[in-house]
Each structure stands twice: as structure tokens, then as C-alpha cells.
Amino acid sequence: NVPVRSTTTHKPFRGAWSLWNEQEHLDIEMESPDKKAPVSSNSTAPDGEGDLSKLKKISSVGKAPKEDVMELKNHAWGGVADGASQTDFMYKDECIVVDEDDVVTGHDTKWNCHRFVPGQPRGVLHRAFSVFLFNSKGQLLLQQRAKDKITFPGVWTNTCCSHPLYGQEPSELDTPEEIKAGSCMGAKRAAVRKLLHELGIDPAQVPLNKFKFLTRLHYYASDAVTHGPNTVWGEHEIDYILFIQAEVDLKPNPEEVEDVKYVTMAELDQMLADPDLLWSPWFRIIKERWLVGWWKSLKATLTTDKAVDVQGIHRFDPPPQHRCCAGVSGILEDGSGNSEKDVKQGAYGKVPIHPVRLAGSVGEFSAALQLKLFGGMQKNLKVANEDVEFCQDMLNKVSRSFAAVILQLPEEMCLDILVFYLVLRGLDTVEDDMTAFKDPKEKEALLVNFHKQALLDTNWRMDGVGEGDEAVLLQRFPHVSKTFASLPAQSREVIADITRRMGAGMAEFVGKDLGQGTTTTVEYNRYCHFVAGMIGEGLSRLFSATGKESESLALQVELANSMGLFLQKTNIIRDYLEDYVDGRAFWPQEVWKKYSKTGQLGEFALPHFRQNALNCLNHLVLDALDHVEDCLKYLSLLRNPEVFRFCAIPQIMAIATMAEVYNNEKVFTGVVKIRKGLAAQLILDSSSIEGVHKWFYAFAQVIKAKVSEQDANAKKTVESCERIMDLTADKAKTHGVTGNKMMLVGLLVLPALGYVVSTLQKNSWNPEPLMTGEMALCGIFLSYMVASVFL
């Protein structure tokens, strides 16, 4: 079973609109005249139902006196009852709210249950039922929902779908004992009520004892197909599936039903293949998972318990088109404040970044100050023409973090690595775009042929793929391909080869549904190899080809692969929520299902599953730490100082990020980042193997200190950290402490002295400027910092 993705708490949650001003943020609401609650401009309730209390006169075996049935028919709601509107009934009727195990936790209005909004991004989990009615010929009765309904208007679906209601008499609330026995009389009573309401079916034609309860499914689906990606409507249900075979007379309610049709299995397949017809997500799930088998053996399905499952709750992801909603984009913030220049692909900007301090210590602050005043690294790129100028400018826009380490590389290889990065960034933009390609095969073909089309054709460009600067990169790609053509033949060969193999690897994953992550750890590692491990191999070959590193380095494929996997796994672990919201997650099911209660990756975002989430997170960090030894070996082979720094900085950042995310529940509510001051310190210490070992040792200590006895992998994690500490202890000690203090003092004194000298020179030794606020602040800061170091 494919687990449902969910991030709602599933608890009774009244009045979500009071927590989020949807008029302001979503611009699709208007107030009702009495201003009691927001009302859609299409004033139709999902399932407007009135008071059908007369149903209590139907007996437990489905018999009812004719006069009571007629009275019930007359009382059935037909759009207006006692002056009430459909919207009134949305607020009056209350669904039965349950948790993931179908345990009743309360009740809430239909309006609120179906709202996918911040605070309850998957609505409120509630009970539902789906009726499949067959005639004596074995044909299935389908209905097309009315086109003026709010949720899933105009879609085709099974005979009848709705909800048992709280407070009905006789009760529509099934007890655990009734579910275990398979009777489910509450759901059946609700089905009879709604078959009359929607299709005008006489309750006497569908007696309760003719219904067969089969199983339950748990799914969610936003109504993104009919309302667009920012819809606030959706379904999140535990659905009771009911089969019945009966000859009935139909009188469809036009406010509920657009059309009806009896179909054979072959006719249903033809309808499903028609691209102009829309289908409900729950019907697609049931059809693909069970319907064919149950239908082929209809008699056995209805008369035996062969198909009945009273124990399990089968959990499903919706089709990809039903995963977007306002609730997802607004889990904690809607990202609407992003400026155009900050637009990125996928869920970037939709998931909050947890704020961090600039610096956590004097050392961090001074390191940040040094980088700010003097710059961290020299730039060695020579801009020979407008194509190279574009490449440099685009590098700074699409990756501020990698730009500095690329541009400080030796002049002989700087441009080669720059072009390599932009080519792969273009390829990655194609892979990441989940909306530009209507046919996955079109996307696969482009990924597979990118190395030929984009690199060899200097006129190749692409519109409509990617967002922000990534889109501009593809639109103006001829600048990149022309620069590529100017590189040495050996460099071109390496870049083209890695691009070809990486594109083929990415294409392998295009057709896979990654809503619940990768399947096995083998697949997880394989994906990381394609998108990161191959980059490590390509860089090693370029380092050797340009003569800045030995030829033997190009042969260290396994070590280079580990370098890439460590970086990629760090990103995947940290970006759990971003990737999940984007519908392309990579946490392997083989791992996370060990810690999941519901079988759904989204549960880790819920507060009441937090310990399970942390255990899973820590397991994945432990897995990533296995690559550290290879990373340290690879770095020890490098001889060129700029190449060493280029490779060392991302690795130190990765181990720092691992220490930050380990056992950190913030991973499940946003993006966790390290402090800028700490990042500055890491950059300054990245020039030597001793500095690298110092930080790997320090962060292994941090992780070890954070290990909880409750963690299932506590012992293994401690052992892994101690192994890293053993590998780095000797060189870490030689990096020293005194030298750092002296450097810190020099760092502070030099800029202050430079400021004084510059000011005096400009003002002909006039002491007046020295009394400005800036100078006074500089003096105070200098005194404080020196005192902090020595006292």
C-alpha cells in the first residue's frame, strides 16, 4: 500500500478561518451577509444535507412503512428547507472526526473538515463512505457530481460518496465492535440517507441488509484539478467501502448530480481513458487497488467474506495532481513575501527557514567580520568575453554558496569548473521542474539527450522550464554552450560524459512516484550517486586533466563518490519538509517505515509523532556518517591549496549541518541552517587538513553529546562518532588554540588601525573625524574583543 501523505494533526479543529485571514491571503472568499463566516462566491456546500431525522423510522433490516418513506422523501433537503441555504447546512452538519487508527476524537463542521488551510494543511481527518451500486446485469452505476458543488465539481465517481454525520438518529456512528463484526450499520444508514438525497433512490429499494462492508481506506486529496494549485478545498478521510446489488429507480437531485450512467468494466476503462473526463481521486484509488477483482467476482464479493477486511486501514497517496493546496504552501508561512529575484523551484520559499543568530561566539563574530572586511578568497577567473561574463554573473545568482569556492580555483581550471557547474545546474533545473512537461517521456528524452542538445548546439535554449534565475539560465544557455566550446578538449570530454550519465540516471527516476520517498537504501544511494557522486568523479577527472592534481586522483572513483553522497545525503536529510511539500521526497521507505506508525512519510511533521520522527532522522544521519572516513581520505590526497579548499569547504559545512540537524525536531517544521558566523569560521579554517580535522572532530563530539538513550541507534551512533574522533584527533590537536587567539587579535586590530590611518590621511591629521560615532564604536568593540580573548 502506498501511504497517504499528511501533515494535519487530525484533531477536532473548529474555526480555522479565525486563525488565517483567507480573504487577505487567498483572495477567493467573500463574507456572508450576516458576517458570521466566510462563504465561497459559489455558494454551494460540499454535501448540503438537512435534517433527515425521519430516517430513524427505518428498521434495522431496512424495512419501513410506506407512509414513513414518503414523509422522508418529502422532508429530504432539495436546496432550501425552512429558509436554510446549502451554506447553512455546511455549518450545521458535523462530520465524525477520527485519528489515524479510526478512533473517534470528536466532531466538526463539514466546512472546517474540508478546508486545507494553514493550521490544518490536510483539513480534518473524518469518516466517509463510498457506495458502489450494481444492477442485476452487473453494471456499475456512476454519477457525475454537479458542476456547482464546491468540492470536486463535475468529476465522475462511484454511485454515492458522502459522510456519516454526528448526532443523527438512529446513529451513524460505528463503534469499534460494529467495525470488528463488519456490520458498520452507521455507515450503511448514512448511505441510505444520501442515496435518497442525491439520486432519489427509495430506501425500500436499498435495505440495510443488502449492503456489504468490504474495507476502509485512508487518503487525502486536495481539489487542485478543478480549483487550481492554491485551492483551500479537499478531502481527508477514512472511507468505508460499501457494495450493493439492487434494481433502483433514479431521480437525481440536480443540485447534487450532473449525470448518471450504468457501465460495464470495459466501458469504465474507456471512460477513464478519455482525457476530457475528470475523476474523483478516491474512485481512482479504489479502482486501481480493488475494484476489478471485486467486480469480476461480484457474487462472491457480496455473499461471502472473501473480500472483507475489518482489521486493516489501507493508506494511499493521491494522484500527483491532487497533492497541491493552499494548506501545503502555508504549513507555517505562505512564502508570499518572496521577491521575484528570490523565486526558486519546488517548495523553496513555501517552507520557513528557522532563524539563527549571526554568531554564537566571539570567534564566529570575528570570522564573519574578517570575511566582510577583507573577503574570504581571491577570484582567479579572467573574463575574456560576454559569454564568460554571463557565466560568472549567473554563477553568483544560482549559487552564492558555490560561487566563491569556484572562482578562487586556479586560473587554469576555474572556467572549466564554472562551466561544469552551470551545465549540471541546467540539467538539474529540468529534473526539478514538475509542471513544465505534460508527458514524462518528453522530460526523460530531454534529460537523456541534454549532453548533445544543450552542449553541442550553441543555439539551443529553452523557455518555460524552471523559475527565477534557473529559468534565465536555460533561456540564455547559448552563452554557456559557447563557453563550453572554448574549453580544452579533455575538459569538454569529461563534462559531456558526466552530463550524459547523470541525465540518464535522472531520467530513471522521472517516472517514479517519490511522494513517499525512495523505496530501498539501494535506490536512495543510487539516486545520490547520479546527482552527486558522479559530480565528485567528474571533478576528480578535471583536477587531473588540468594538471593541478595527480593523474591517480582520477582513479579514486569510490572516494569521490562518497564525497558526493555525503553532501547529497546532508541536503536530503535537512530538506525533509521542503521535499515532502514539493511531492518529491527521498528519505528511503526501507528506513522510515521502521519508525512510522501510520505508514505515511508526512506523519513525521506532526507533533504527536515527534519521537518517531527524531529516531528516523537520527538513523539517516548515522547512515550518512559512514561516508566521513572516505571523505577524509580523499581530502588527504589533494595537493593544490585552492583545490583543497574547494573540496574541503562543502565537506566541513556538511558535517556542521549534520551536527545541527541531529536529534533536532526543527527539521520537521522548517529548514535548519548553521550560523553565518560559524560558516565564516569554517571557511577560514578550510585551508589545511589540520583545520578540517579540527572541525570534523568537534562536530563528531557535538553529535555524540546529543545522542539520546531513547534512540534505537544510540550505541551505533556513539561508535561512529568515536571512530571519526579517532581519525581526526592527532591533526585536530596540531591546529592549536594560541594561534587562533593571536589571529583573532590581529584580525581586530588591523582593520581598526587601517580605519584610523585612512581617516587621518584623508583629513590631514585633523583629529575631529576620530571623534565620530563610528570611531567610538570601533574602539569600544576592539576593547571588548581583546578582553574577551585574554581575560
From TrEMBL:
GO cellular component: endoplasmic reticulum membrane
Domain of life, source organism: Eukaryota
Keyword Isomerase: yes
SUPFAM superfamilies the UniProt entry points to: Nudix (SSF55811), Terpenoid synthases (SSF48576)
Pathway annotation: Isoprenoid biosynthesis; dimethylallyl diphosphate biosynthesis; dimethylallyl diphosphate from isopentenyl diphosphate: step 1/1
Keywords on record: Isomerase, Isoprene biosynthesis, Lipid biosynthesis, Lipid metabolism, Magnesium, Metal-binding, Steroid biosynthesis, Transferase
GO terms for MF: isopentenyl-diphosphate delta-isomerase activity; metal ion binding; squalene synthase [NAD(P)H] activity
Annotated signal peptide: none
Listed cofactors: Mg(2+)
Domain Nudix hydrolase: 124-285
CDD domains according to UniProt: NUDIX_IPP_Isomerase, Trans_IPPS_HH
GO biological process: dimethylallyl diphosphate biosynthetic process; farnesyl diphosphate metabolic process; isoprenoid biosynthetic process; steroid biosynthetic process
Matching InterPro entries: IsopentenylPP_isomerase_typ1 (IPR011876), Isoprenoid_synthase_dom_sf (IPR008949), NUDIX_hydrolase-like_dom_sf (IPR015797), NUDIX_hydrolase_dom (IPR000086), Squ/phyt_synthse (IPR002060), Squal_synth-like (IPR006449), Squalene/phytoene_synthase_CS (IPR019845), Trans_IPPS_euk-type (IPR044844)
Region of interest (Disordered), residue spans: 31-55
TM spans (from-to): none
Family of the protein in this entry: Belongs to the IPP isomerase type 1 family. Belongs to the phytoene/squalene synthase family.
Protein name: Nudix hydrolase domain-containing protein
Organism classification: Eukaryota, Sar, Stramenopiles, Ochrophyta, Raphidophyceae
